[in-house]
Design brief:
Helix 12 runs parallel beside helix 14 and helix 13 packs across helix 15. The N and C termini lie far apart (87 Å). 54% of the residues lie in helices and 15% in strands. The protein is built from 16 helices and 13 strands.
Length: 435
């Protein structure tokens, strides 16, 4: 023990006193059965039914080495929990937590998680004694999550056993809901059989009344509900073009379900905040505590930038931007229509010739429209619909021409990828007519 650092001795003393405070029988420097290992602190119940080694590990060690030491203890029936002050490469590889002092009280500050609503999130600090008490009585258990979540960088976490049950219930309910949805979709597909007297215009009446859910079946044959094919096809199309459908398509699987533009804002401010909070020593020394590291700062900066990303509407209100885009595009269309009329009056046009529309929008308007689509796709979808209706009402411009013109303008002066642009404008194209 003479070679151990003061910090190591202090942490070992904290483990010993916390274990005893948690009502365990605890001793320091307890050897294993054959002397292969020695526990910094060995805790057990009064009857000796369970034993747990509490290990203070401050010196550098690889994840493989610490895993080997844990396995040797476990071979003798003694699981181990490892403790450190700073983020170590083995943290979360074996049963472990990071501790720190808050107002002179030793707390577990990393390695805890809890289940809230529908996901695992980082849990708040807990006193070392309370953590050990829950571990000893089985209330706190280790958990390896299936996927990473925001704020959780470790592979093995400590969670309350009640959270495991809540997560299991949620997973079962989610699977049941998914199964029900798949069953409903399968029923709709199987039932989409053409019945006499029902056409696409019937379904459009449903949609015009704001009902995009599956309508009532048109008949029941052999105890099975039946829909006309037009009803099923138009229902699927209405769902795909709804506000929620547009948001889902344009989020591109972002971890926070943000649009691509909102995700760009989040990532930009994340780097900016991190640079301010961590990379400037004059700022960092004012607030960084001994137990905090770059990973902790990254978590804070990510949280700050998420707030910015979901507040885009307060940064630039969509109702004002949308109306501005509508007016700007229609102004460009008005100029184009006037120029086209003047040209026709000079050159004339032959009888029966199909009208060729020469529409355009200015570069600045195209760039604004591109930004609007990338950051607020669902609102942009609504306001472009307003443009299509106004253009047809004022100049009888077909909806297809409006969509084609705007898509071309965005492709020339915008930043959207080809795939995103085609996907978005496909949701605006008038649906194909069904017989």
């Amino acid at each position: 023990m003479g070679e151990e650092s003061p910090d190591h001795l202090y942490l070992k003393w904290c483990l010993l006193t916390a274990a005893r405070e948690a009502s365990a029988v605890a001793g320091a420097e307890v050897p294993g059965p054959v002397g292969v290992w020695r526990a910094d602190v060995l805790a057990s119940d009064a009857g000796g039914q369970w034993r747990i080694a509490l290990e203070a590990q401050l010196a550098a060690i690889t994840a493989d080495d610490i895993r080997g030491r844990s396995e040797r203890m476990l071979e003798d029936g003694v699981p181990s929990v490892w403790f450190c002050y700073r983020r170590a490469p083995w943290l979360g590889v074996v049963l472990s937590v990071r501790v720190g002092e808050v107002h002179d009280v030793v707390m577990v500050v990393e390695g805890l998680a809890r289940f809230t609503a529908d996901e695992w999130v980082k849990a708040g600090p807990m006193t070392l004694a309370e953590f050990l008490r829950r571990v000893f009585n089985g209330q706190m258990v280790s958990y390896s999550r299936e996927r990473r979540a925001a704020g959780l960088a470790l592979d093995v976490l400590w969670v309350d056993s009640r959270c495991l049950r809540a997560a299991a219930v949620y997973r079962e309910s989610e699977e049941s809901a998914r199964a029900r949805e798949e069953t409903e979709q399968r029923r709709a597909q199987e039932a989409a059989k053409v019945l006499g007297g029902t056409t696409a215009s019937t379904l459009r009446a449903y949609i015009s009344r704001g009902n995009s859910e599956v309508p009532q079946p048109q008949a029941t044959v052999g105890g099975r509900d039946q829909w006309a094919r037009a009803v099923a096809d138009d229902w699927v199309e209405a769902r795909r073009r709804s506000r929620e459908g547009v948001r889902t398509v344009m989020s591109a699987g972002d971890r926070d379900e943000l649009s691509r533009g909102a995700a760009e804002v989040r990532d930009h401010f994340a780097a900016d905040f991190h640079g301010t909070l961590w990379e400037r020593p004059d700022v960092r020394k004012r607030w960084v505590l001994r137990a905090r590291n770059e990973g902790s700062v990254r978590e804070v900066s990510d949280a700050l930038t998420w707030t910015v990303a979901v507040s885009l509407d307060r940064i630039l209100p969509t109702e004002f931007l949308g109306s501005t885009v509508v007016d700007a595009v229609l102004h460009s269309f008005a100029d184009a229509v006037e120029m086209d009329c003047n040209k026709e009056s000079r050159e004339g046009s032959g009888p029966g010739e199909e009208k060729v529309w020469m529409l355009y929008v200015s570069r600045s308007v195209a760039a604004m429209l591109d930004w609007f689509i990338r950051h607020h796709p669902e609102s942009a979808h609504h306001y472009i619909g307003e443009i299509m209706r106004a253009a047809h009402r004022q100049w009888e411009i077909p909806a297809e021409e409006t969509v084609r013109t705007l898509c071309t303008a965005v492709s020339m002066d915008g930043k959207m990828s080809d795939e995103d642009r085609k996907t978005f404008f496909a949701l605006l194209a008038p649906p194909a007519k069904t017989a």
